[in-house]
């Protein structure tokens, strides 16, 4: 399983880590044209991670996704008209929409055979006030025809689901999607607990209610979680008079998203056997190789991420970039420094041994297909 966090234009950080994973797997399998959709059975993402996850799931190389961010980055954050910026959203969604249609195909649906892996995209349904971690699992409740009336999530255009997952309030207009006879309004999946979707992917794979029923052992499941960099909103000199309405309006959403990212990561490290991951906090450390509170771990887990603070950047040799606002979701002008951070993260954290024990080519030989290598005969 491969999970990719949200983070706006910081998706370029994740792409450099994914490029390293792609190179390692090509070397390990002696397959120079391998794409990540051939190796991973289940790919998921939120917001910018949804763009990357969907691209990888249809067989794109990491470099092809890099080109999209390079060529379309500025257009993805093209400013809306003045009145629209004042009253609704900062950026024009039509450029992003055009790019998504071009990349995935305007007629490609979630149930399309063009998608080579299991795929999960995280949205927030503002109409029902609920998280929507939606997958293309054909056995999922809302993907079985006739089971819930005329609704079938597999008929939804892929580009539209990705657009909805990226519809950050104040950045872009919400996305409306007609499902059956009802129209729902969706916004950015980062406004759910699953901006880091890793643990939800494990639940989708293992809980009987989701109808995948994968075996849950360290040997059967590997969960790779790729972040886009985080920056805690520490304010050591904050005092009461600074905590006015505007301060809270700006800081609270970011604080909640950061807390959820860390909490999802922590749950993965507790339930899974963590091979890689930075310190979570000074009390519990990194939980790498930790065996408690569960004697049996349910999957193998690696987390590739870095704090975009002075200390966090120094830890990967990028302290010279600490003066830059690398945490900004729309910092298109900082894509090159972000790539440098991603490359440094990959150099410091990605190791071949993280993947060797789970290599599907060793199990199935040269005719491997992503959908064939499942951890249970009951899967698909």
UniProtKB/TrEMBL annotation:
<dbReference type="GO" id="GO:0016042">
    <property type="term" value="P:lipid catabolic process"/>
</dbReference>
<protein>
    <recommendedName>
        <fullName>PNPLA domain-containing protein</fullName>
    </recommendedName>
</protein>
<keyword id="KW-0442">Lipid degradation</keyword>
<dbReference type="GO" id="GO:0004620">
    <property type="term" value="F:phospholipase activity"/>
</dbReference>
<dbReference type="GO" id="GO:0006631">
    <property type="term" value="P:fatty acid metabolic process"/>
</dbReference>
<dbReference type="Pfam" id="PF01734">
    <property type="entry name" value="Patatin"/>
</dbReference>
<dbReference type="GO" id="GO:0016020">
    <property type="term" value="C:membrane"/>
</dbReference>
<feature type="short sequence motif" description="DGA/G">
    <location>
        <begin position="188"/>
        <end position="190"/>
    </location>
</feature>
<dbReference type="InterPro" id="IPR016035">
    <property type="entry name" value="Acyl_Trfase/lysoPLipase"/>
</dbReference>
<keyword id="KW-0378">Hydrolase</keyword>
<feature type="active site" description="Proton acceptor">
    <location>
        <position position="188"/>
    </location>
</feature>
<feature type="short sequence motif" description="GXSXG">
    <location>
        <begin position="45"/>
        <end position="49"/>
    </location>
</feature>
<feature type="domain" description="PNPLA">
    <location>
        <begin position="2"/>
        <end position="202"/>
    </location>
</feature>
<feature type="short sequence motif" description="GXGXXG">
    <location>
        <begin position="6"/>
        <end position="11"/>
    </location>
</feature>
<keyword id="KW-0443">Lipid metabolism</keyword>
<dbReference type="InterPro" id="IPR002641">
    <property type="entry name" value="PNPLA_dom"/>
</dbReference>
<feature type="active site" description="Nucleophile">
    <location>
        <position position="47"/>
    </location>
</feature>
């Amino acid at each position: 399983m491969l999970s990719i966090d949200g983070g706006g234009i910081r998706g370029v950080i994740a792409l450099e880590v994914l490029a390293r994973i792609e190179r390692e797997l090509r070397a390990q399998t002696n397959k120079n044209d391998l794409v990540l959709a051939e190796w991973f059975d289940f790919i998921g993402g939120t917001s910018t991670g949804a763009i990357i996850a969907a691209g990888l799931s249809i067989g794109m190389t990491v470099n092809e996704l890099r080109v999209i961010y390079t060529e379309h980055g500025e257009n993805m954050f093209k400013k809306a008209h003045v009145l629209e910026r004042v009253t609704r959203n900062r950026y024009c969604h039509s450029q992003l929409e055009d790019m998504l249609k071009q990349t995935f195909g305007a007629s490609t649906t979630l149930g399309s055979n063009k998608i080579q892996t299991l795929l999960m995209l995280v949205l927030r349904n503002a109409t029902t006030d609920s998280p929507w971690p939606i997958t293309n699992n054909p056995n999922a409740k809302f993907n079985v025809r006739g089971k819930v009336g005329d609704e079938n999530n597999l008929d939804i255009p892929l580009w539209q689901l990705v657009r909805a997952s990226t519809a950050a309030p104040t950045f872009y207009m919400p996305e409306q999607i007609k499902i059956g006879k009802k129209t729902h309004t969706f916004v950015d999946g980062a406004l759910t607990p699953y901006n880091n979707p890793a643990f939800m992917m494990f639940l989708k794979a293992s809980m009987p209610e989701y109808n995948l029923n994968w075996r849950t052992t360290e040997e059967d499941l590997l969960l790779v979680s790729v972040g886009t960099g985080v920056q805690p909103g520490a304010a050591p000199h904050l005092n009461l008079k600074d905590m006015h309405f505007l301060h809270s309006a700006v800081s609270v959403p970011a604080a909640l998203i950061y807390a959820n990212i860390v909490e999802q990561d922590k749950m993965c490290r507790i339930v899974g056997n963590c091979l890689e991951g930075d310190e979570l906090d000074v009390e519990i450390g990194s939980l790498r190789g930790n065996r408690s509170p569960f004697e049996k771990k349910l999957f193998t887990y690696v987390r590739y991420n870095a704090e975009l603070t002075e200390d966090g950047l120094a830890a990967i040799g990028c302290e010279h970039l600490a003066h830059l606002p690398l945490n900004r979701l729309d910092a298109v002008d900082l894509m090159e420094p972000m790539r440098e951070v991603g490359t440094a993260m990959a150099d410091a954290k990605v190791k071949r041994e993280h993947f060797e024990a789970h290599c599907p080519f060793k199990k199935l030989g040269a005719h491997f297909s992503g959908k064939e290598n499942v951890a249970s005969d009951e899967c698909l």
